[in-house]
Amino acid sequence: DPNFAAAWAGLATAHVHLFGCDNEPHLDKAREASARALRLDPQSAEAHVAAGQGLAMEQRYADAATEFERAIALDPTFFDAHYYYARSCFKSGDLEKSLRLFQQAQSVRPDDYQPVYLEALVLTKLGQHDEARRAYQRALESSNQYLDLHPDDARTYVLGAGALARLGETERATEWADRAMSLAPDDDAILYNAGCALAVVGEEERALDALERAIGAGLAGGDWIPQDPDWERLRNHPRFRALVQRLAR
């Protein structure tokens, strides 16, 4: 059905998440697919979120905000609208708004470990360490519950590793990061987040190895790293600076 707006929105989202993974012009294709979805159904929250994600990847944050706000107005219970808007705000440096949106995403889907983990990350960046610790503990609890049902989910392990690292459980954090990378050795997001956890626990060279592998796998996070507090101790490391410069090209 070439007039099925939701399918075009889904295609746009897929292209956004594939950006940087190969030589395909994924952002162009995402832009075309989201525009098609919006022409077919201007009231589709999914289509507005897809458009917002593409604009955020282009670092057009104000335009992205317009799309995300429209999606939330159309469907206040749509998790992706709050979650991806929060991520866009984090990348743009609007931390207070990012925090509120991650909390709203958590209220929509209270069992999801991702928004509470990222809430903790924002709180860390804001210097609200007691609140961040409580959020990391909640994220770890949610991760454990999810792993009971999905014991081979790499993303759960890798974000759980980040929570463990921030809670001072160095050995388990390293084990979970290694487990995540063994489950998804070519996934740029898994490698990036494993590097974050390893950086927090002081495994600097291994963290940089993971970041280098993530870039090689297609990481497109040049606007996320400057805000990410997990890399603070490595900001002036020559190898880290070279990798960030490589990512920005």
If you had to describe this structure to a student in words, what would you say it looks like?
With 249 residues, the chain is mainly alpha-helical. It is 73% helix and 0% strand. The longest helix has 21 residues, at 129-149.
List the helices and strands and how they pair.
Elements: H1 5-18, H2 26-40, H3 45-57, H4 61-74, H5 79-92, H6 95-108, H7 113-125, H8 129-149, H9 154-166, H10 170-183, H11 188-200, H12 204-216, H13 238-248
Helix pairs in contact: 1-2, 1-3, 2-3, 3-4, 3-5, 4-5, 5-6, 6-7, 7-8, 8-9, 9-10, 9-11, 10-11, 11-12, 12-13
Q: What count of helical segments does DSSP give?
A: 13
Roughly what is the average pLDDT, rounded to an integer?
A: 95
What gross morphology would you assign?
globular
The total count of strands amounts to 0
Largest sheet: none
What is the succession of H and E elements? HHHHHHHHHHHHH
Secondary-structure content class: mainly alpha
Report a brief summary of the structure.
The protein has 249 residues and is an all-alpha fold.
Key traits:
mainly alpha, 0% strand, 73% helix, 249 residues
